[in-house]
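Structure ticket #2291
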Amino acid sequence: MRNVVLVSAAAGVIALSPGGPALAQCDPDYSGVTLKAGAQTGPFIASAVQAAGQGWAAKTCGRVEVIEFPFGELYPKYLSAMVAGEAAFDVITFAPAWTPDFAPYLAEMPASIRETEAWTDIAEVYRDRLMVWDGKHMSQTIDGDLHTLSYRRDLFEDPEEQRAFRERYGYDLAPPVTWEQYYDIAEFFTRPDQGLWGTAEAFRRGGQQFWFFFTHAASYTNHPDHPGSMFFDPETMEAQVNNPGWVRALEDYIRSVSFAPPGALNYTSGDIRTVFAGGQVAMNFDWGDTGVIAADPKQSRVSGHVGSAMTPGSIEIWNYKTGQWDRFDEPVHSPFMAFGGWQAAVPSASHNIEAAWNFIEFLSNPENSAKATVTGGSGVNPYRISHFENMEPWLSIFSEGEAEMYLAAQRQSLEAPNVALDMRLPGYFSYTEVLEIELSKALAGDVSPQDALDAIAAEWNRLTDDFGRDAQLAAYRSSMGLPPL
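Resolution: structure written out below.
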């Protein structure tokens, strides 16, 4: 069932004065225009769209109707309406991975938006990569997404905990640099008798599960010498999802369940933020939402004790060319741009294309987006250069030291030499649907990691052939920043 929130101007268009009625300022004037904006069921992202809708309504005298659906329903709702040519939505918010399927039905971004200072303020990977398909800007980033680590400084910096950890594991307690350290720390802090567990990840099918698995996989499969080889062979489009790097990643992902609170197999990304802010886990990795929510004393029991770091790396990465593990002198960090940040676009069937793009520009402008990044539950993470450089908004929730740590983790991950891009290609929803089915079987112990991944690889190869291997290869190479063959 969908939820609908109608946002209109707080005051009427007509204001009364002793001299008679006077028109309120509507800049630009969209009086009588109602925009229908699609979003996932809130608060994440939907609340940011609603808040911007209120400001846009007051400025333009238009209205914004926010139509919410569960995340798993967004793709089919949008695509079915657009294919049918229905003007069901004026604005859609969606994953960049869906752009290849949506692009034929979208209105290209107006050139005027790309001629402003606000445009150059957007981080390059979003502006010039994830907002582009087939050489055209089809969408606007409204959220910056990649996974980073959050941890409880009150536990990690406690002298007694540090002493006990060193006695048990032989090295100092600190944010984990490798996944081996991550699991040592998770094991150390798993204390059910104290209501404390080591970590929490999203494991629920339909709960943004596979992006957490992909973060594990990036560390073992995103080889720095072979860009674009994480998901598919970039020369043949043969699925790589069942190679030994992916198997190790799935073994790790399953292992995480044993260090998470009871019922964790039902956790969505929203649930892991709740348990971290509630003090039930010592650390997690997530989009930037965990850090913001946990820093907010109105939402968190660990406010004032939130640390941030890059996700762990690995000293071994699978080389698909040689069929062997390559070992590195130092851990290689492969921060994963999970999801890639929510995007907003305008279906070409909309009857309000100009107004819709005006609203998107307002939603994503530096001022409104800065407010959203520091609002717990908005789902908006930094994606503008000004988000990283202007400390003032962050000090409304973080201490200065915590803010610096949070922004450093975000920016270092975004700019890491071996940052891993998410998969983007036509039919993405079909590829991830089979992925989630098999991941859930493996998490439940019904199949082995290798068998689950073999089944995924076979289905991915079948889908690639069905969609057209040559076309899929060209799209995949383009999305990974590789030249045509």
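Closing remark: Confidence is low (pLDDT under 50) at residues 10-23.
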